[in-house]
Structure formats: structure tokens, C-alpha cells
Give the backbone structure.
Amino acid sequence: MAAVTDVHPILRQARDGRMARSKLIEVIVAREGAAQREATTAAVEKVIAFQIEKGRIASEIKNGVEILSVVR
């Protein structure tokens, strides 16, 4: 489950350092394999919450979609 910690690098590589939360989760689940979707999703949610709490990632709602972005 090493790819779960790749949340920050994946966001940095995204266009403008921003990505929808659901899209980010799907990218990581695709890398890990769909067989472990529930466990991977739960782990990614924990990592995202931790990084938002630490101020490494910002979260905002636009048009009903949660957008995550890298804090620079």
C-alpha cells in the first residue's frame, strides 16, 4: 500500500497542482488495483485528512466538487 502516501506528489504533478478529491482517489486506486478498492480508499482518505490538517494540502468546494490543491 505504498502508493497511498503518494497523495502530495500526485497533486504536484497535476495541472496547476489541483485535482478533485474523487479523481485523486480514483488515480491512486487504479495504481493499487481495483481488488483492494475499499481498503485503498479508506487509507487515502486518512492520508488526505492528515495532510489537510498539517496544512500541506488545501481543500475548497467549487460548484459542489471538493478540490484539493498543493499549498506552496
User: Anything to note?
Assistant: Strands lie at 18-20, 57-62, 65-70. The helical segments are 7-13, 21-32, 37-54. The chain has a mean pLDDT of 87. DSSP finds three helices and three strands in the chain.
